[in-house]
From TrEMBL:
InterPro entries xref list: CheY-like_superfamily, NreC/VraR/RcsB-like_REC, Sig_transdc_resp-reg_C-effctor, Sig_transdc_resp-reg_receiver, Tscrpt_reg_LuxR_C, WalR-like, WH-like_DNA-bd_sf
Entry keyword annotation includes Phosphoprotein: yes
Single GO molecular function: DNA binding
UniProt-recorded name of the protein: Uncharacterized protein
Gene3D superfamilies membership: 3.40.50.2300, Winged helix-like DNA-binding domain superfamily/Winged helix DNA-binding domain (1.10.10.10)
The keyword NADP appears for this protein: no
GO biological process: phosphorelay signal transduction system; regulation of DNA-templated transcription
Record PANTHER family: TRANSCRIPTIONAL REGULATORY PROTEIN NARL-RELATED, TWO-COMPONENT RESPONSE REGULATOR
SMART domains (UniProt xref): HTH_LUXR, REC
One Pfam family of this chain: GerE
Key words of the record: DNA-binding, Phosphoprotein, Transcription, Transcription regulation
Annotated organism of origin: Streptomyces malaysiensis
Length: 224
């Protein structure tokens, strides 16, 4: 796979280059500041882009803006966004277009080589890869709603679904049968009032839409 990397931290950037090259992929370009990102993506039109959210010159959301702009110019461009901290707003904005081929990970996942490469491959395949910490944060902030009615096992299944895991992976992780996973997923959707969804990123986006709706409601309620 051909990859463009955008990361201002030279050590992390070069580490990702070595990691991807050693895994048999080709890094066709690197960018160290926000203004460099979109031109590199448009020139090389890679199979995937790995982008830091906050980059020079402003260290706000330059990488995210470049990712969104690139997907407008190159529809379906697989993008894996990296962030130092859990920032649910960025995850929600990235996933708002309803398309797959998107991921949002914390930077410490890069050091977990298998997890990082697995997430990248899922994104390139058109799936969704959301960091478990982001999912945990979203679920924790839901209060007094149908999430409370889920059993502990259903919560585990919901968490893994929101990360973008397929039924086979969920079954293997929880050491249950795929039939049991399908039953739990049906219960989750019924309790959350969500329509049944097919496999893949649409199911993930349905779950995230539900979780993000609660997050927006909390913010709109004037907390803090």
């Amino acid at each position: 796979m051909r990859v463009v990397i955008a990361e201002d931290n030279a050590l992390l950037r070069e580490g990702m280059v070595l990691l991807l090259n050693s895994a048999g992929h080709e890094v066709v370009a690197v960018a160290s500041s926000g203004p460099e990102v979109l031109p590199a993506l448009l020139e090389h039109r890679p199979d995937a882009a790995v982008l830091d959210v906050r980059m020079p010159p402003g260290f706000r959301d330059e990488g995210l803006r470049a990712a969104l702009a690139a997907r407008r110019e190159i529809p379906g461009l697989p993008v894996l966004v990296l962030s130092q901290y859990v920032e649910e707003t960025y995850a929600a904005e990235l996933l708002a277009d309803g398309a797959g081929g998107l991921g949002y990970l914390l930077k410490d996942r890069v050091g977990r080589v298998e997890e990082f490469l697995d997430a990248l491959e899922r994104v390139v395949a058109g799936g969704t890869a959301l960091d478990p910490e982001v999912v945990k944060e979203l679920m924790t902030r839901r209060r007094n709603d149908p999430v409370d009615s889920l059993t502990p096992r259903e919560r585990e299944v919901l968490h893994l679904m929101a990360e973008g895991r397929d039924n086979t992976t969920i079954a293997r992780t929880l050491v249950v049968s795929e039939r049991a996973v399908s039953k739990h997923i049906g219960n989750v959707f019924a309790k959350l009032g969500l329509p049944p969804s097919d496999s893949g990123h649409r199911r993930v986006l349905a779950v995230l839409a539900y979780l993000n709706k609660g997050e927006s409601a909390d913010k709109g309620g004037g907390r803090g």
